[in-house]
Predict the structure.
Amino acid sequence: MIVLQGVSKLYPGGIKALDNVDINIPEREFAFLVGPSGAGKSTFTKLLIRDEIATSGRVFVNHQDVGRLKKKQIPYFRRKIGVVFQDFKLLPYKTVRENVAFPLQVHGILDWATIQPRVDAVMELVGLPECQERFPDQLSGGEQQRVAIARSLIHNPMILIADEPTGNLDPDTAWEIVQLLIRINSYGTTILMATHNREIVDMLRRRVIHIEHGHIVRDEQEGAYHAA
Amino acid sequence: MSTVSVTTTAVMLLMLGTFLVVIASLNVTLRALETKIDVVAYIKDSADPAQVQNLRESLSQNADVASVRYVTKDEALSRMRQTLGEKAQLLSQVQGNPLPASLEIQLKFASSAPAIAGELQRQAAIEEVDYKRDVVDRLLAITSFLRLAGTVIVFGLAAIALFIIVNTTRIALYARRQEIEIMKLVGATDWFVRWPFIFEGMFLGVLGGLVTVVLIGLGYQPMLQRVSGLLTFLPLAFDPQFLPRLLLLLFAAGILIGGLGSYVSVRRFLEA
């Protein structure tokens, strides 16, 4: 599902964010991406959504060579991926319902009769069926992240990339969000979650990919935040 | 913010429109001056009348020629009598009629004077050709300068209006950068992001154009009368078809500048 072959990323000024990285994340997997700040986690996720292009090596997502996508193909490629961020990235002047429906509208689906059942379904899944008419600032951080997750799922992506999704949340709320992601994973969505949250990683014992200074220093199937 | 863009676009278009009015009136004036240039060809006394007749006909068929008038020897003499007035009796001292017959040719464009004069000079029936060479040269220099300057200023003003729209759109884009970022993350095509801004730019252009059209539409006639009252020596005659054409042009310019300005701005923003 996600394959990196000898991927390096060099930023102007000679900063090497990733150095000859090889990785293979199969379908339906739940993987954590851990490591200190500046280790290359964000670069990793940016390469997957073609927000950045690898300096060398090849990146495959959904069997597509991401680096070789033409500019016009990028939007259609991104429609198969869901992305969740630490800062939620919700639009403050849109209601929850409008925020969640936004990707569908962007994809050209404008008919609310088609949109509404899908919004209802994902809102049910994230556990906020009653909040559709509220605005983001009327919700708690955890609720906002649930809305962001609902938005990332509305177009049924095969992969969900979560970049520090619990970074702004208290431990209990963080735990709820991760359980939600686990549930989504159990329905078949491949999930890659970049995180600093040690408790969560240690508790779940899922695959852990540890990056430091642009290198993969550890890749364990049932890993912990730190090497045993 | 939109009020600012509409106002600036309107001001730019207004300047553009006013300038076009001035240029157009000047053009009318210059064209009027141009038709006042005559070429006079003096005919040899020995010339074959059939040849002269042929020459008259070919001249009146020439596209650059407004009119041809044949002045006989007698007419030339009587004109001279009139010019001399009381001194006309001097002419009685002269035997016969020493004045030549001539063709007085009025041109449509001053610029064709040298060519037509040269052509006539080569005719066997023609003794001498005369036209106000330095007046023509000066007039041509002035008209070509004014037309060039006019074109430069019109394009300059259009460029300024474009620049303002580009920057106004940039502010709008900056204000909505979060929305654009999310749009792109969830798979919006560039055109999906672009269209609303381009429409907005065109709409601002339309509003600016509308303001200009109303102001110039109302101000054209009074302004004209005032100017021609002040500058009586200039024949500021006006083409009645000019106003609707100008208004249409300004309106189109508003839409074009608005749309283009936004397009340029969004393109830069999406590539950054």
User: Anything to note?
Assistant: Residues 44 and 127 of chain B are 5 Å apart (CA to CA). Helices of chain B lie at 2-34, 49-61, 73-84, 113-121, 133-175, 177-185, 190-230, 242-271. The longest helix of chain B spans residues 133-175. Chain B has a mean pLDDT of 80.
